Amino acid sequence: MNLFTLLDEKNVIPNLKAKNKKDVINSLVDTLASKVDEDTLKAIREGVFERENVMSTGVGKGLAIPHCKTKAVEENYAVFAKMSKPLDFNSIDDEPVEIIFLLVGPDSKHSHHIKLLSRISRLMNSATFREKILSSETAEVILEAFKEEEEKYFVH
Fold it and tell me: Of 45, 101, 121, 143, whose CB neighbour count within 10 A is largest?
């Protein structure tokens, strides 16, 4: 599964404004409201905050990947955001976050969830790709960048 197939213009936020990590996570989860029912949304929110309380998902280089697995979903969901300004996320390198990728998956598909997290990390490890994303102004341009980068690395 490609990451760009999980994304569309409704769940890519090119200029997210938020005061803190809690606001960011709530905004990202709220973006899924058109895709899941209210109980599922609540379970996702609880799962993401529970995971975040274990250890910050600010993985460094300006990237955070808040995520969770839950029995409330049967498929993967993702939301991508570029912050309007860098935000403290308690990242492992103590640097503020500019790029955030929320990933939610079914509890029953652990290895698939890990593969998607790995794919996000690999894509975001490219300084060129990160710069392309950070300079993008629209969801459409961000989606195209994901598609191109994934095809370069993962489609043979």
Answer: 101
Domain count for the chain, please give it.
Answer: 1
End-to-end CA distance of the chain: 13
Task: Give the CATH number of the domain where residue 129 resides.
Answer: 3.40.930.10
Q: Count the helix, strand and coil residues of the chain and give each as a percent rounded to the nearest 5.
A: 50, 20, 30
Domain ranges, residue 132: 3-154
In order along its 156 residues, the chain shows pLDDT tens digits of 678 889 999 999 999 999 999 999 999 999 999 999 999 999 999 999 999 999 999 999 999 999 999 999 999 999 999 999 999 999 999 999 999 999 999 998 878 889 888 989 989 999 999 999 999 999 999 999 999 998 887 764
Q: What is the pTM of this model?
A: 0.93
